[in-house]
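Example 9 (inverse folding). The structure is encoded as follows.
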């Protein structure tokens, strides 16, 4: 030990480098290694020999600088093992945090190399050169190879995560001061990386993906001791943290429901005291998810879009090769440019597979999901003012919103939405039957009390979570939230009203794309309602809404009818354009090439519209059929019935009337258009309501679209293709007869009334 701390005593010239470092990097069992006994002896002499502590600090500083130039392709393990062995001794761990390098850098791009712990945390399967090691020539690899490589990545990441957590866990237990310095280091790493969530990110100005992911996984593990299934320590998370000079900088983040002025006033208020460790770790971990793991899922989503675009570009580029085939010089330039595109595609694919490999980790995602459940419960306690989950939550939420809620960063909700959307899309198997209650409650609560969240996309994201939770799982198993939505008392009580309320609000989302957004939102709402519709509790709820909340129900139905009318119009309009353009292209052998290109572009646009609108048409009509079957009385109220009858007659005319021939296009099935099925569902709506006399009268009084011939033509089609049973066909004939009789009675009454005498007309105009 003296040879290390005072080498001049042994005639060894100081080299300017740590003499201790090479021995620490050797295995403790090595003859020249620092074994546990020697290390323990050195630790005992920390206080009596003032040279020992600086020697250990210098050794770790040099290891850090060496490791900063390495990747996991290099021999990095001795550095990890050495640091783990050192920090097991509390005095060494505490000493390391006193290094001038411990938290020196404030530049995001260099933080992971220049701070003491940074080089250990930057080790990752996501490092640039490493991704190409796992996925060289990715275009040529089959699925089996890719999956095996991703499994290897996950094992590597799991070992790294375990080692890093072990290091940090010992450091925060080394001493109170050491713990504070470690928390400061985590906070600094997060605070300088806000740009990672910008729309366009320059990777040279932020920390690396691997570094940020390692921060997230380490903090997740630090949270595990207080995250029990019954939330017994949830009350230890103190929102007063926001007023105690919080380590996590939130001032400039977009807030859930406050403008910058209100936010500044809130954060300017200071209170005395310190925050407990659980609170500190909780807020750090929420931020780590936002700037770390959730930024990776966002990056993966964008990367997949960019790669599709790049592949299309390469395909189009390759089609131009023939233009240069007779010019060797130009062809060489062409091939060089093509190679650049293909190299870029290979790099992108390698990164995509690497991101998937790291993120599709059941073990980590399960831990991450447990943390997100704690965030959900924390938020529900804030907004309800209840001691949840011990005390139940009731809706709607209080009209007066707490300032602390309004001034929380928006990412508290955003990360829940993105996390669970990702899990339900890619890894639904990790959600067990007991893990969705709080999530369902959060979604319903904020769809019912939408004023609590300012961002319309976040509110739409809550619908998407419920929607994705209804998707059948691989193998045909029910969606992960289906049983909960049908059996959970909170859902039975509030879900349907919340969905209907947001269906209405989606008419005006406040975004520049609100017109199209509303259809996507409503499509997802329809899917959720279809999932719960077999449950008689929900049908009874809808019936009660129609009786007890008439204005609300009428608004909902009117918007539903608007949607049916619009999407059918747009679908049929697109098919008419497709029919016309396909005919012109077939018959236009001598068509000018420019005109032909314009026609083909017009056809492609109409085909895209037909696909999207037809999907909406099928779902909207199916929903109308479900509702009218259960609530014939409600759909034939005076406020609704005439609009409904007019809409049905108009679309029946479009489907079987003289203009229906314009809907015939090539390959109908690729657009999701099954005319017979759609006609059958429209007829079902008529049959659902035919027992109501005012509906019969409303059909008869439709002066624009009611045509007896359309009903006869529909009967002919239904019979020809066996679309309805004999009983249903008999009822259809009965409906036709009753409408004819109502029409005749109306006309007779008008005739009996006769002309209005001139003197009465004069009185009116006077």
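The amino acid assigned to each position is listed next.
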């Amino acid at each position: 030990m003296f040879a290390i701390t005072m080498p001049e005593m042994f005639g060894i010239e100081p080299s300017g480098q740590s003499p201790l470092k090479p021995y620490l990097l050797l295995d403790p069992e090595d003859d020249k290694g620092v074994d546990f006994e020697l290390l323990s002896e050195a630790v005992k002499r920390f206080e009596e020999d003032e040279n020992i502590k600086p020697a250990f600090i210098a050794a770790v500083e040099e290891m850090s600088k060496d490791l900063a130039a390495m990747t996991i392709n290099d021999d990095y393990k001795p550095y990890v093992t050495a640091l783990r062995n050192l920090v097991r001794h509390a005095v060494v761990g505490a000493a390391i945090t006193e290094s001038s390098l411990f938290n020196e850098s404030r530049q995001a791009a260099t933080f992971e190399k220049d701070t003491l712990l940074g080089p250990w945390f930057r080790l990752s399967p996501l490092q640039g050169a490493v991704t190409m090691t796992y996925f060289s020539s990715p275009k040529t690899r089959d699925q089996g190879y890719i999956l095996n490589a991703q499994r290897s990545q996950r094992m590597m990441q799991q070992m790294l995560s375990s080692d890093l957590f072990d290091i940090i866990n010992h450091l925060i237990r080394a001493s109170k001061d050491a713990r504070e310095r470690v928390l400061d280091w985590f906070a600094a790493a997060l605070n300088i990386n806000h740009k990672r969530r910008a729309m366009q990110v320059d990777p040279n100005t932020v920390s690396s993906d691997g570094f940020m992911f390692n921060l997230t996984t380490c903090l997740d593990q630090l949270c595990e001791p207080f995250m029990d299934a019954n939330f017994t320590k949830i009350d230890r998370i103190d929102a007063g943290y926001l007023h105690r000079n919080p380590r996590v900088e939130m001032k400039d983040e977009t807030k859930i429901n406050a403008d910058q002025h209100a936010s500044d006033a809130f954060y300017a208020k200071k209170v005395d005291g310190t925050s407990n460790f659980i609170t500190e770790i909780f807020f750090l971990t929420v931020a780590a998810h936002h700037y770390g793991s959730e930024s990776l899922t966002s990056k993966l989503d964008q990367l997949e879009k960019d790669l599709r675009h790049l592949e299309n570009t390469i395909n189009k580029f390759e089609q131009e090769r023939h233009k240069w085939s007779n010019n060797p010089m130009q062809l060489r330039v062409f091939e060089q440019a093509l190679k650049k595109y293909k190299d870029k595609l290979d790099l992108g694919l390698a990164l995509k597979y690497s991101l998937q490999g790291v993120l599709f980790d059941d073990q980590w995602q399960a831990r991450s999901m447990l943390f997100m459940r704690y965030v959900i419960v924390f938020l529900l306690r804030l907004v309800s003012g209840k001691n949840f989950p011990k005390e139940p939550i009731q809706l709607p939420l209080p009209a007066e919103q707490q300032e602390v809620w309004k001034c929380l960063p928006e990412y508290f909700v955003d990360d829940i939405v993105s996390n669970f959307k990702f899990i339900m899309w890619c890894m639904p198997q990790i959600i067990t039957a007991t893990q969705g209650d709080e999530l369902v409650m959060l979604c319903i609560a904020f769809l019912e009390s939408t004023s609590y969240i300012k961002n319309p996309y976040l509110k739409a994201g809550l619908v998407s979570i419920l929607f994705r939770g209804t998707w059948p799982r691989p193998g045909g198993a029910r969606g992960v939230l289906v049983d909960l939505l049908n059996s959970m008392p909170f859902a039975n009580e509030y879900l349907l009203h919340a969905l209907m309320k947001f269906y209405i609000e989606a008419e005006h989302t406040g975004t520049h794309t609100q017109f199209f957004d509303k259809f996507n939102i409503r499509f997802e709402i329809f899917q959720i309602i279809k999932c719960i519709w077999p449950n008689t509790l929900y049908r009874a709820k809808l019936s009660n809404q129609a009786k007890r909340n008439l204005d609300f129900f009428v608004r909902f139905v009117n918007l539903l009818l608007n949607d049916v009318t619009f999407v059918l119009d747009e679908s049929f309009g697109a098919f008419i354009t497709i029919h016309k353009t396909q005919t012109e292209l077939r018959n236009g052998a001598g068509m000018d090439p420019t005109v032909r290109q314009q026609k083909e572009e017009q056809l492609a646009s109409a085909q895209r519209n037909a696909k999207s609108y037809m999907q909406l048409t099928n779902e909207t009509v199916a929903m109308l059929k479900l509702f009218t079957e259960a609530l014939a009385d409600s759909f034939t109220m005076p406020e609704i019935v005439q609009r409904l009858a007019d809409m049905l007659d108009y679309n029946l005319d479009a489907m079987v009337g003289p203009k229906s021939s314009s809907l015939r296009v090539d390959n109908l099935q690729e657009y999701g258009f099954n005319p017979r099925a759609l006609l059958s569902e429209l007829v079902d709506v008529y049959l659902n309501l035919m027992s109501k006399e005012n509906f019969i009268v409303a059909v008869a009084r439709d002066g624009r679209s009611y045509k007896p011939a359309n009903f006869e033509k529909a009967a002919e089609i239904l019979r020809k293709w066996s679309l309805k049973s004999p009983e249903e066909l008999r009822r259809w004939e009965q409906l036709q007869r009753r409408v004819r009789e109502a029409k005749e009675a109306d006309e007779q009454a008008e005739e009996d009334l006769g002309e209005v005498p001139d003197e009465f007309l004069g009185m009116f105009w006077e």
